[in-house]
């Protein structure tokens, strides 16, 4: 088998005990062997300001370079006020600029939203998809992934305790691997 596909995982929460970060780590364990998931930190990114495009901060340059190296991107996010957390939107904006030089262009993507609530981050999932379409990220459409009850999802080792959810997420990751192969630059 050739080298696994490099998947940059962006987590929309900065909290030390983030449930979405736990989910991202569990997804790395569930991913098929043809994928290598790596969480890419976004907490170090200063607020995007177009005035800085001519002389961008080093953390912007490093972030953009990391996204460009990735074969695909996976967004794992909570929902804040029925939308995308500001820190995630900021990272998306930084990666998309300067205009015409987007690091996201053409990268296959996936979105998983997770929340303790019953609708599993539905609003964040769909708002995020709107931005990704504009950025020319072909986003996996089915299965959609809204994970509710994420606060009760993990076992003591950080794995997915619920068999049904583990099976669903394993299927999602297998489908995502196929999506990447279908849409990745050759």
UniProtKB/TrEMBL annotation:
Residues 7-148 form the NADPH-dependent FMN reductase-like domain. InterPro entries: Flavoprotein-like_sf, FMN_Rdtase-like_dom, NAD(P)H-dep_reductase. It holds the Pfam family FMN_red. GO terms for molecular function: FMN binding; oxidoreductase activity. GO terms for cellular component: cytosol. PANTHER family: CHROMATE REDUCTASE (PTHR30543), NAD(P)H-DEPENDENT FMN REDUCTASE LOT6 (PTHR30543:SF21). This is NAD(P)H-dependent oxidoreductase.
């Amino acid at each position: 088998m050739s080298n696994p596909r490099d998947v940059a995982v962006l987590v929309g929460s900065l909290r030390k005990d983030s449930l979405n970060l736990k989910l991202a780590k569990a997804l790395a364990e569930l991913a098929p062997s043809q994928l290598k998931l790596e969480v890419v930190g976004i907490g170090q990114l200063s607020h995007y300001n177009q005035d800085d495009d001519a002389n961008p901060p080093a953390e912007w340059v490093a972030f953009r370079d990391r996204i460009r190296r990735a074969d695909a991107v996976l967004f794992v996010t909570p929902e804040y006020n029925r939308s995308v957390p500001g820190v995630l939107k900021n990272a998306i904006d930084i990666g998309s600029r300067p205009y015409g030089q987007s690091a996201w262009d053409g990268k296959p993507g996936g979105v998983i939203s997770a929340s303790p609530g019953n609708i599993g981050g539905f609003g964040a999932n769909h708002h995020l998809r709107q931005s990704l379409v504009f950025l020319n990220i072909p986003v996996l459409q089915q299965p959609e992934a809204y994970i509710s009850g994420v606060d009760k999802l993990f076992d003591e080792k950080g794995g997915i305790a619920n068999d049904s959810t583990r099976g669903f997420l394993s299927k999602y990751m297998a489908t995502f691997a196929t999506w990447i192969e279908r849409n990745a630059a050759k």
